[in-house]
Amino acid sequence: MKTIEMAMVGEPLNVIDPEIAATLEEEKRRQQENLILIASENLVSRAVLEAQGSVLTNKYAEGYPGRRYYGGCTYVDRAEQLAIDRAKKLFCAEHANVQPHSGTSANMAVYLALLKPGDRLLGMDLSHGGHLTHGSRASISGRYYKSYSYGVNRDTYLIELDEIRKIAREIKPHLIVAGASSYPRRIDFVGFSEIAAETGSIFMVDMAHTTGLVAAGVHPNPVSCADIVTATTHKTFRGPRGGMIFCREKYASAIDKAVFPGLQGGPLMHIIAAKAVAFKEADTPSYKNYQEMILANARALADALIGLDFNLVTGGTDTHLVLIDLRNKKISGNEAVELLEKVNITINKNVIPYDPSGANDPSGIRLGTPMLTSRGMHPAQMKEIASLINETFEQRNDENRLAIIKQRVNELCREFPAYKNSVNNGDI
Ligand SMILES: Cc1ncc(COP(=O)(O)O)c(C=O)c1O
Q: By three-state DSSP, how is residue 33 classified?
């Protein structure tokens, strides 16, 4: 007779835990049957999933390759060293730490390494497109440090370096953060670095959203002009959920100590192995084509939306995302999310700069193309999706029309499957 322990090791998930097995299947179906336009989501490869679900999850490995506190680290050392070497090559970095569990952990580790509580931090305003970790009061970054923010111009919605220089000269920040969650344009990292040099500030770029674009060389790489660069490995990069930090050699020891033991314990070795796989995938011509297509799709989506009288913040995009001001469409962010959900289109609400409404029901939505591009879609589909979105809003009170739109969405989902024959997945 099998012992319970043996059963735990040997039986498949649907036998051990049918509820969770069914939930995973349903989530897989949701991903398959919805057009997902959430700018920070993507569809990882079969190889990345395999590494994530591997036996490396069993291993404790506090420390760094060759300097661990536990025995038995030969193979996890190899996995982490591969990840580090590949990451450094891909992003042309002097030093890489691949252990942060997330983008937030990466940012916190930088602050812990380089700032003292009460030091001055200058980052982009959350309500103008910055991230919580750039000094918002809701985050530890805005409580332990004296945080100041810059925003975008009220007319153009663009970041203006002259304005940032003025603020930086006045407050003399210890650290300046560039990077955003919902800014659709390129950021002048070199211009920021010149301001930081002038005010004696450390210059950090948080490229969480654009990591994949940077890896493929289709977006400026901030590693050469910033002291520190943080990134996420999910989002455009299309790797496992996680963070990483690049820095100049002079900051390497402080950064490594801040990640471990400063902020984290044992690294997630299965995730680090999956990061290594994603770095390898990113170092290929097909990945460059993929990232170029993300941009082409975002531009096509933007152009089609503009043609349908949507008001795009900054008038367009240079990245994977568009930010839409919905006020002329007489629909709120919440209503837009709910309506599109009815026709199986998944998006997120978003504040727009100088939003007259609050964050709970903002005036905007954010759309991104990484996930649909992974499914093999092209500008022709983006154009069609823009009209489906427009029609959903215009026909919001006509259930029959909404049913027809949903049917078309279902057809598109079948034509461009998430898990069968998608550009990176084989047939999971
Ligand atoms: C600019 C930026 N930095 C950091 C993060 C945080 O990443 P994570 O969700 O992995 O903590 C995000 C996530 O949305 C982001 O947009």
A: helix
pTM of the model: 0.96
The CB of 141 under 6 Å from ligand 1? The reply is no
- Residue 179 above 60 pLDDT? yes
The CATH number of whichever domain residue 407 belongs to comes to 3.90.1150.10
Choose one of 282, 311, 344: the last residue of a domain: 282
Please report the pLDDT score of residue 420 as a whole number. Answer: 72
Residue 121 domain boundaries: 51-282
3-state class of 392 per DSSP? helix
Residue 229 and residue 116 share a domain: yes
Q: Where are the alpha helices (DSSP H) in 158-268?
A: 161-171, 189-199, 211-215, 249-257
pLDDT over 70 at 203, yes or no: yes
CATH number at residue 267: 3.40.640.10
Q: Which of 263, 282, 301 is the last residue of a domain?
A: 282
Ligand 1 centroid–CA 42 distance in Å is 14
Query: In this predicted model, what pLDDT tens digit does every residue of 9-49 receive, in sequence order?
Result: 689 999 999 999 999 999 999 999 999 999 999 999 999 99
Domain count, the chain: 2
Asked if residue 195 and residue 249 are part of one domain, the reply reads yes
Backbone phi and psi for residue 35, each to the nearest 5 degrees, phi listed first: -85, 105
Kindly give the number of the ligand 1 atom that is closest to the alpha carbon of 180.
Answer: 1
Catalogue the active-site residues.
Answer: 60, 62, 206, 232, 235, 241
Distance from the alpha carbon of residue 207 to the mean position of ligand 1, in angstroms = 9
Take atom 5 of ligand 1 and give the residue whose Cα is closest. Answer: 103
- CA distances (Å), origin 91, targets 40, 88, 344: 20, 5, 36
- Ligand 1 contacts CB of residue 366 (under 6 A): no
382 Cα to the center of ligand 1, angstroms: 25
Mark 183-209 as b/e (b = at least 16 C-beta within 10 Å).
bbbebbbebbbebbeebebbbbbbbbb
Residues 146 and 246 in one domain: yes
Residue 181 alpha carbon, nearest atom of ligand 1: 16
Dihedral sign from CA coordinates of 18, 19, 20, 25 = positive
Most informative mutation of 38, 131, 259, 348 for ligand 1 (most atoms within 8 A of CB): 131
Same domain, 277 and 289: no
Q: How far is the CA of 202 from the centre of ligand 1 (A)?
A: 20
